[in-house]
Specification:
By secondary structure, the protein is an alpha/beta fold. The protein is built from nine helices and 20 strands.
Amino acid sequence: MNTGVILKKEKEKVLHQRHHWVFSGAIHSFPPSFTNGDILPVFSFAKELLGHGYFNQNSSLCGRMISFGSEDPHETLLQNIKNAIALRKRLFSQNETAYRLINGEGDLIPGLIVDRYGDYLVIQISTLGMERLKPLIISHLTTLLSLKGIYEKSLIHTRKEEGLEPFEGNLYGETADLVEISERGSKFLVSYLRGQKTGFFLDQREMRSLIGEYSKGKRVLNCFSYTGGFSIAALNHGAKYAHSIDISKEALELAKSNLLLNKFDPEVNKIITEDVTKFLRFTPSLDYDIVILDPPAFAKKKQDVIQACKGYKEINRQAIQKMPPGSLLLTCSCSYHVDEELFQKVIFQAALDAKRSVKIIGKHRLSPDHPINLYHPEGSYLKSLLLYIS
């Protein structure tokens, strides 16, 4: 009797290559009866055990591997959590109090994101299989770490494909409205309860440092600033001033608090509540040495790509056209469906339309707490170009 998933002929190659995803088109048969979200053994058509994964027949990406070969899936899950924690301890000193602790497939744990803010964890679960494993995950995290609280913020649209409703709530211990974190000498207040994503854009750690390297004595404009991450990094590296613009009043209130926390004057370092696209369109010139464009994802679905590219082109054209000669533009995209090659083509068109000479002097620096599994390149989503405008 079949108690596992059997793949079609010649569909086992990706699992031999330790890729975590199994699509419905690769499956020959499921067990006669199982509950969606169950962990099942996976066999080749020739009945070779390939590993264990959790499955959901209602999704086209119906399986995600937890272990490979004969490894026990639950033991492997625990070991991968331990490995993820050990890697962060190696990467960061005790002075660095915020980082991504578990990065999904990048840490061999598909469907799970865990961010650490001081003594608090914020988790995001995207799959039914990981939802079923949640009690075990919480048990492991609380056993392995000294924590004040664990909060879940699973509001991503992909949960719908898994048959899951958005969920937000406390899972363990206490909650904190504001947590103070430290990142390379900069201090930030994070609200994981009210903020975007899990509260802070940890994935831009290295790019904040890069901007800092160029900021001494410079005038900085931080567009889509959120709570002022790039602004604080620039100021702590000696920027003359940094102006922050965002449409969210709540985010900018926290940006102002972050300026004060780092002992910078909000009167000098202006906070501008405005739609960035309108600001760029109607501002005659951008008299800054450094401009940062780090918008939210313009393409949340594959169908959004054409419209997203139009959006990226327009904001970059406006910036490139209006920036002074010798200035720097850091432009970013976190849209998974707009890959690096396409993003660079969009920026090329923006520069061409702006009739400016533009050089690429830097590209995205991966934050090491966001590892990409070599066998799972789909984990890469963030693109950045540092441009010199002539």
